Amino acid sequence: MARVSQEHLDARRRQILDGAASCFARNGFHASSMQDVLKEADLSAGAVYRYFRGKDELIAAIVTEVLDTVRGILEQAARESPPPTPDVLVPRALGRMREQRPATLEGGEWMFPRLMIQVWTETTRNPELAVVLADGYGKVRAAMERVVENYKDAGLMSADADTDAVARAMIALVQGFAAQMALFGGLSEQTLGDGLRALVAMRGATAGA
Predict the structure, then answer these.
(1) pLDDT digits (tens, 9 = 90+) for 75-125
(2) Model-level pTM?
């Protein structure tokens, strides 16, 4: 019997994850059955269960993959000299996520923001997924902290700035903007970049006013 190539195995896994992500983003985790996933991926039960035992494993795999992608984008930015400023980096991260995970729902809506909302909701009732998300978020935050340290080294930010606080604020910008995209639509990465650029250019504000 001919051996199945790793390329084939990877492609099949990708097919399953993409089908599951579409189901979850469109209908939510609990309204999506494994039969829905099988239909979306156009595969047999045996083909899918060879890779994943059920919905919980699918959800965890999707979360891990997305966070690893975000971490990779940030780690690349941390190696740049000079590092991209927030008004460039944050929209770039969202744009590259769109390039690498371009799947859309009916009507052309980008799937990723809605999937992100589903993940947040699911972690409130799924302790195992909460652990996966916390681990992935910790790695993303560490990568963002390296970017912030590069800002300091390049003289773009005060050396005594709180690295963790800045990293968390930048991540919150991505999360908040993605939530707006999921809930209201009609937004682009360029809108976020323009808004950030205007904010960092503020002058003469009085602290505590």
Answers:
(1) 999 999 888 999 999 888 888 888 877 778 777 888 888 888 888 888 888
(2) 0.84
Query: How many CB atoms lie under 10 A from the CB of residue 138?
Result: 12
When computed from its CA atoms, the radius of gyration of the chain, rounded to whole angstroms, is 19
- Beta carbons within 8 Å of 26's beta carbon, 6+ residues apart: 32, 105, 106, 114
Question: SS3 of 83, please?
Answer: coil
- CA-to-CA separations, 42 to 36, 39, 107, 117, 171, in angstroms, rounded: 10, 5, 21, 25, 36
DSSP state of 104: B
Please tell me the distance from the alpha carbon of residue 150 to that of residue 69, in angstroms, as a whole number: 20
**Which ranges of the chain would DSSP assign to H, the alpha helix?**
6-27, 34-41, 45-49, 55-78, 86-100, 111-123, 127-153, 163-184, 189-200
| Amino acid in position 21 | A
Mapped onto helix, strand or coil, the DSSP state of residue 110 is strand
From 111, 87, 99, select the one nearest 182 (Cα to Cα): 111
Q: Which amino acid is at 118?
A: Q
Token pair belonging to 107: 């009507």
185 touches 109 (CB < 8 A): yes
CB 163 within 8 A of CB 149: yes
User: Tokens 């937004």, residue?
Assistant: 187
Beta bridge pairs of residue 104:
110
CA dist 29 and 119 (Å) reads 9
- Which residue is it, tokens 């599951």? 20
